[in-house]
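Problem 12. The chain below contains 213 residues. Write out its predicted structure in token notation.
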Amino acid sequence: MNRPRLLLADDHVLVTDALKSMLAPHYDVVGTASDGRSLLRAAETLKPDLIVVDIGMPHLNGLDATRQIKRLLPRAKVIVLTMNEDCDLVAEAFRAGASGYLLKHSAAQELMLAIQEVLKGASYLSPRITGGAVSALLRGGNAESEKARKLTPRQREVIQLLAEGHSMKEIADVLAISLRTVAAHKYRVMDMLAITTNAELYRYAVKHRIVSV
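Solution.
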């Protein structure tokens, strides 16, 4: 019988190494990734059954990576493993397509159970954050968060890379698009959000968790 195929993504190698050691006896750990863009490439190539992903990763955050993976591989399951207990962020993770959300400090106790439940088609949410996350899901977000969700995946990619300090030329190279297209995305987003400076754009990216600090 084939074992479920797992892909692990975290920008700290020590974390992915520890997870791999814990999970390899029970699952086929087919790969690891240290940033969101390499995660997308690995997911497309390896076609895992389940992905364990952190939120705060460079180049493309874990939630935006999850959104793209679920369009690319709708049957793949995603579990978010993070330090962040923010209930609004939990709700956003499930809206992005995640089936599980748990905290890193409880991973040793909960991760195996979470993987089992998610592979069976259920959802898993760390008991520590259940109540507030349900309330956040029911609220659905305010007008500002709704506006943030209307940004296209490419616009969110450009915002994150700008907020991380990359030049528009570097972004064009990373995304394999023209410099003119990068500029068009940047200024379209700034116009949509009534933002006039790079500093405001950075603050927006942090506030809406497009980039981690």
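Discussion. The chain has a mean pLDDT of 90. Students who got a different answer should revisit the alignment rule from Section 12.3.
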